[in-house]
Amino acid sequence: MINLNNVSKTFTLHNQGSAVIEVINDVSFAVEPGECVALTGASGAGKSTLMRMIYGNYLTQAGEIRIGDLDIVQAKPRDIIKLRRDVLGYVSQFLRVVPRVPTLDVVAEPLRALGVAADDAQGRAKALLTQLNIPQRLWSLSPTTFSGGEQQRVNIARGFAHSYPAMLLDEPTASLDAANREVVLNLIEEAKARGAAIIGIFHDEAARDRVCDREIDVGRFTPGMAA
Amino acid sequence: MTPLLSVQGITKRYGMHFGCADVSFDLYPGEVMGIVGESGSGKSTLLNCMAGHLPPDAGRVVFDTRTDGPRDTITMSEPERRMLGRTDWAFVHQHARDGLRMGVSAGGNVGERLMAVGERHYGNIRDKATDWLGRVEIDASRVDDRPTTFSGGMQQRLQIARNLVTGPRLVFMDEPTGGLDVSVQARLLDLLRGLVRDMGLSAIIVTHDLAVVRLLADRLMVMKSGRVVEAGLTDQVLDDPQHAYSQLLVSSVLQV
Amino acid sequence: MTEYNFAYLDEQTKRMIRRAILKGLAIPGYQVPFASREMPMPYGWGTGGVQVSAAVLTPQDRFKVIDQGADDTTNAVSIRAFFQRTAGVATTTSTGDATVIQTRHRIPEDTLSEGQILVYQVPIPEPLRFLEPRESETRKMHSLQEYGLMHVKLYEDISRHGHIATSYAYPVKVEGRYVMDPSPIPKFDNPKLGDMAAIQLFGAGREQRIYALPPYTQVVSLDFEDHPFEASKADHPCGMCAATDSYLDELIVDDAGGRMFVCSDTDYCEARQAAGHKGKDAA
């Protein structure tokens, strides 16, 4: 489902003396449907960077990143937009909050973008928010004033609203207490069971061991980093 | 799939100076394209050339019309272009005063496009106008008030209602939040987001404000001195800018 | 020079005006620009109507002038005297006998017939002027049939007054094509515009436009489906001749607020009285 072949990335900082930073070199691996693969490595190794490259958020300088049939590296922007809507989900580390939009709408939005009726989308959103222990009185409020943990749970609810065949999860259990951690891990296991291919970054070793089938040490591909 | 709008090689010169040079891109239904750049980048020139306000020196602007398929709007006759401007196209000006009739009531402003395409039932026109005022969060009781009595944000929302009432497929926006207070801008952007999504609109938005494109645009073009220096997904251009100028632009934005 | 050319204007000017008139007749309701001449009366006093009359008059014509329906107001008297002096044509106050009738702000009550010409004095020929001040824009709107703005005006009336408040110079659509200002006639007169047997010519001297309605032209007053056009009607008969179907003027007769309603069309009223009809205020 997700295939990386000889993927490399370099940052060129034009306004800082044209500094060239090689972050990733010649990465290759594959993730099958129903698998969950963990990206590991020291801080700064490029785990989040690689995830963003798979999502198309960062440009890839060399290689091929295939999600299903589409090569993200060569794809036209509108194809990536379509992919992100239907196929590829991404739960980032931080919830980017649009002020004034109620939590319920934040979570329902991916479904509305797919053309799901407002009632059905909201129904699914409510179910997820309940599962993630966000109290009902907060549903009509914007997440701007929520705590870090609450924002993260809203972020996760939004990420799991649609059943994506491929998912990228960046620190999904960070800032969560044991009970909510459990909920999230269950969500991941459900996704795996329905055949989703998942790539995750987990600092929490126990969580990683529970849901991930394999690990890939990104440090191996980072120039200048000890293996 | 046919692009809704195909811009090919648009060039506009002012003497020896290029207003915009050889700009090309395709826009598909439901896509929002942001065009950013600083003053003098050529973004407004480009927008006006595309929207038919300024004749370009070269290039085509091919629009997929409802009845005749793809047509180059530059070579269209004026009556056809004006008809397009009343039905399938909309233009939201930076200053609401340029896009409204200040001496006509809010209801009359919104109803004008309906009357221009043949609507002749007063009750229906008034109902549709009132409905649209509601959708842009203007209280229905203001339907008979003139825009001179509205705040800047309300005038801008009225302009949007006036433009969208005939269900256009393509909206051109020139700095839609320019000159508005920050809180008013936020409200307007939310409204635009919702309308674009609910109506399946395509839009081309020119702005110097990166936050506006982050929020509204799927794709982004960065312009400098009349040329497009970088183009791609909005989040990609903003998070991983490749061109020196794009990097400068993004790094110049203050984090609040 | 003591002799005037027939009807004051030189022959070349008359030819120019006639060409404009022919063009106007060929395109009913379309405003034809013409080179308006300096006339011996100021703008706003009927120079357009006078130029049109001067261009169409022949020595055999019988000329009638009315101002708000009356033959005996200052302006009507002056213009009639002007043509008597410069054209030597016969003049009359009888609508039926006249061959050319110049009018300000009314259409005569008597039905006109083929062979008659009605010349209107027009202040502002452009019906869209008050909503769109740019001439360049209004010309485009006419040529492209973009008349939405006209209905905006009517919409505004209804929203403000509950009904279309325009009571004179009520805009009309001619032959389904051009929107025209019929000059400041009361809307009561609008139904007479359509299908008239006489030729109708409109002259605006200051604005330099001529337009025309050939005989039996379709003229429809603009309205909304749910607010249809209604020609207003007075709810009393004429005090002098008891007519129930004519447009009435309100006359204040004393300092105590006493008032009387009388036909604005003086010829019509006098003819009826002569035929024996008497209203409640008749002597």
Topology of helices and strands:
The complex is a heterotrimer of chains A (227), B (256) and C (283).
Chain A: E1 2-13, E2 19-31, E3 36-40, H1 47-55, E4 62-67, E5 70-71, H2 77-86, E6 88-91, H3 103-113, H4 118-131, H5 148-160, E7 166-170, H6 178-193, E8 197-201, H7 205-211, E9 214-217
Parallel strand pairs in A: 3-8, 3-9, 6-7, 7-8
Antiparallel strand pairs in A: 1-2, 1-4, 4-5
Chain B: E1 5-14, E2 17-27, E3 32-36, H1 43-50, E4 58-65, E5 69-72, H2 78-86, E6 89-92, H3 96-99, H4 106-116, H5 122-135, H6 152-164, E7 170-174, H7 182-199, E8 202-207, H8 210-216, E9 219-224, E10 227-233, H9 234-239, H10 244-252
Parallel strand pairs in B: 3-8, 3-9, 6-7, 7-8
Antiparallel strand pairs in B: 1-2, 1-4, 4-5, 9-10
Helix pairs in contact in B: 4-5, 4-6, 5-6
Chain C: H1 11-26, E1 32-33, H2 47-56, E2 62-67, H3 74-87, E3 90-91, E4 100-104, E5 117-121, H4 135-143, H5 148-161, E6 172-174, E7 178-180, H6 190-193, E8 199-204, E9 209-213, E10 219-221, E11 248-252, E12 259-263, H7 266-274
Parallel strand pairs in C: 2-3, 2-4, 4-5, 5-8
Antiparallel strand pairs in C: 1-9, 6-7, 6-10, 8-9, 11-12
Helix pairs in contact in C: 1-2
Give me the side-by-side strand order of the main sheet of chain B: 6-7-8-3-9-10
N- to C-terminal distance of chain B: 41 Å
Oligomer: heterotrimer
Mean pLDDT of chain A: 89
Give the strand content of chain A.
Answer: 15-25%
Number of strands of chain B: 10
Poorly predicted segments of chain A = none
Strand order, largest beta sheet of chain A: 6-7-8-3-9
- Our estimate of the beta-strand percent of chain B is 25-35%
List SSEs of chain B in N-to-C order: EEEHEEHEHHHHEHEHEEHH
Runs of chain B in which pLDDT lies below 50 for 5 or more consecutive residues are none
**Helix content estimate of chain A:** 25-40%
Give the largest chain-chain interface (CB within 8 Å).
B-C, 25 and 18 residues
The main β sheet of chain B shows up as: 6 strands, mixed
Overall pLDDT score of chain B = 91
Shape of chain A: globular
Broad shape of chain B? globular
**Percent helix among the residues of chain B?**
25-40%
For the secondary structure, the number of strands of chain A is 9
Judged by helices, strands and strand pairing, the structural class of chain B is: alpha/beta
N-to-C CA distance of chain A: 27 Å
